[in-house]
Amino acid sequence: MAAREPGEEEEVKLIKTWSSPYALRAVWALKLKGIPYESIDEDLTHKSDILLHHNPVHKKVPVLLHHGRSICESLVIIEYIEETWSHNPPRLLPEDPLQRAETRFWAKFVDDKIWQAFSKEGKEQEQGLSETAEHFRLLEAELKKKKKRLFFGGEEIGIVDIALGWVVNLVPLFERILGVKFLDEERHPALLEWRQRMSDVDVVKESWPPRDKLVAKWTAIRERCVGKAAANE
Predict the structure, then answer these.
(1) Tell me, what's the pLDDT at 176?
(2) Which residues lie below 8 Å from residue 25, measured CB to CB, with a gap of 6+?
(3) What PANTHER family does UniProt report for this protein, alphabetically (predicted)?
(4) Is the model's pLDDT at 9 over the cut of 80?
(5) Residue 17 contacts residue 6 (beta carbons within 8 Å)
(6) pLDDT of 36-85, one tens digit each?
């Protein structure tokens, strides 16, 4: 895919919701690359015609609109942003093919093994959360491979950091709601240092949804899950 020339006029829009961690990935990638965009906030309880038109398959956010063409799925959007605005630093994926493949592996690992554990319900969630400790251990080991590495992307934020970025804000919230400790100094020193560095990045900390609204949302989700599980017993 050919990169666009610097200074060329762009038309970029992002369909998102106020709380989606997937949409937040696209927000961070656009802001890190310095790409101006128009935000279109979506209400998923009453999905708009524009969302259904541009994402007729999954009907979910985020959706990036670039000159009217739609790109769906957060990790796909990040890659599109990198390839289209490759002249804008930072580089979100490495140039080396092997390193790029490894980076894609870990970004997908975050979705398949970490986030999905929190998004399940009832007994499936309990089983998923019990496996999360091992998954965080693997991420800890990956981050420690290079002792002076600041981020998963190296000296600068990359796609894995963006994919895992929700950990900065949501894991402490989940620990509070679920009463379970996921990250601690003894087992995850590198991940906790990484979390602090991510939280200090301007585009990250300025983009967080209101915490009180997040607490209310995820508490309500947890209560619904508990209620469903009890009804099925």
Answers:
(1) 87
(2) 62, 74, 75, 77, 78, 162, 163, 165
(3) GLUTATHIONE S-TRANSFERASE, GST, SUPERFAMILY, GST DOMAIN CONTAINING, GLUTATHIONE TRANSFERASE
(4) no
(5) no
(6) 999 999 999 999 999 999 999 999 999 999 999 999 999 999 999 999 99
CA gap 44, 24 in Å, rounded: 16
- The Cα–Cα gap between 188 and 183 comes to 6
Structure tokens at 69: 């063409």
Report the phi/psi class of residue 34: left, alpha or beta, with left for phi > 0 and alpha for psi in -120 to 50. Answer: left
Q: Are 147 and 140 in contact (CB under 8 A)?
A: no
Q: How confident is the model at residue 121 (pLDDT cuts 50, 70, 90)?
A: low
Cα angle: 93, vertex 158, 74; to 5 degrees: 85
Q: What is the Cα–Cα distance from 170 to 122, expressed in whole angstroms? A: 19
Q: Which two tokens stand for residue 186?
A: 């003894």
pLDDT of 202 strictly over 90 = yes
